[in-house]
Amino acid sequence: MPFKADALMVLSSLDATETRHTREFHTHLMYDLTLSSNLDGMEVCLTLVVLLTTCFTIMVLNWAVNRHRRLKIFKQYGIPGPEPHFVSGNMSQLKSKPEPNTIITAWLNKYGKVFGYFIGEIPYIVVNDLEMLKQIFIKDFHVFSNRPNMALDVVPLNKTLLALRDKRWKEVRALLTPTFSSGKIKLMTCIVAKKVDVTVDVVTKKAESNEMFDMYELVQGLTLDVIADCALAMKTHCQVNPKDIFVVAVRDFFRYAHNRAVEYAIMFPFIATVMAFISNYMTAGQMTNLIVDSVNSAIKARRSNPDVKSMDILQLMLDHRESDDHETSGLSDEEIVANAYIFLLAGYETTATALAFTFYLLIKHPDVQERLYQEIEEAEDASYNTVQ
């Protein structure tokens, strides 16, 4: 019995030892497997990092080589001009003082009647030779009709006359040109007169209450009211309410139109692609959506009531669209909206600034102001022919 008990104890001890060794083996095996897995994961991560770094380096080198080649194009053709910066071209020089016109004049004096400069990587040629200009704009106009590509390819700007190219540009321009004939503009004078009456009322009330006001802000409202009604078929009240959502949106658009992001988009085309994607979420994009939605609503309303005709630019464009059964010849809805939109951008700041400066000069020269007042009083009426 004692012998049997000892044997059992030995066997039990052996089993315990074997179990312990088995556990240790499994533990070491799991550790080795975990270590191997971690090493494999690290190798995969390192491989990905190397691949991404290599791809990025190749892309940067490719961009640098292409940029260098583009910036040498004027030298290849023997065209003189200022030395461009590798990243910004000559943009920083044109933005510095004095004004761009003074800088361009200085370059003309230095490099001659024909020279080139760069905005980012985009080449521009300045021509100050009359015979060459005649050849460009008359004899060889079919070669030079296209404008440079827009910095941001966004809707609706890519459907405007500024962005259309080749045959389509020629077709749309031929359709839009009659819209601005003297006869068509004459039909809209009643709209302009009504908006000017609002301006007179606002100024009269300010004068009666001896209240100071910002004349530039008022003429901005006048300009927007006229363009919105004539071109966009929008009824706005920008003069009476300077906080009108429309006038605020347009002011914000021009306030943020010239910022660092736009400059970067010009210098680096891939940034322009990103900005075009997120443009709807920016201030300019929100203003654009407001106008596009309004014009689309006006188009639907007028098509649902074809017998009702309005004397404005939108109606004239719609008539071009509906008078032709060939889609390639008439204006598409997208082109109607886009060009109504560009009329606003082209006419707002330029007209408002010219009016504000005119009022400034009249205030600075009371004698001229009085003479103008007398001439207006002597006029029999304020019709289109009288104004001409």
Automatic annotation (TrEMBL):
Keywords: Endoplasmic reticulum, Heme, Iron, Membrane, Metal-binding, Microsome, Monooxygenase, Oxidoreductase, Transmembrane, Transmembrane helix. Gene3D superfamilies: Cytochrome P450. It is found in: Endoplasmic reticulum membrane; Microsome membrane. The chain crosses the membrane at residues 41-65, 261-282, 340-363. GO terms for molecular function: heme binding; iron ion binding; oxidoreductase activity, acting on paired donors, with incorporation or reduction of molecular oxygen; steroid hydroxylase activity. GO terms for cellular component: endoplasmic reticulum membrane. Coiled coil: none annotated. Pfam families: p450 (PF00067). It is a peripheral membrane protein. InterPro entries: Cyt_P450 (IPR001128), Cyt_P450_E_grp-I (IPR002401), Cyt_P450_sf (IPR036396), Cytochrome_P450_3A (IPR050705). Its cofactor is heme. Belongs to the cytochrome P450 family. This is Cytochrome P450 3A5.
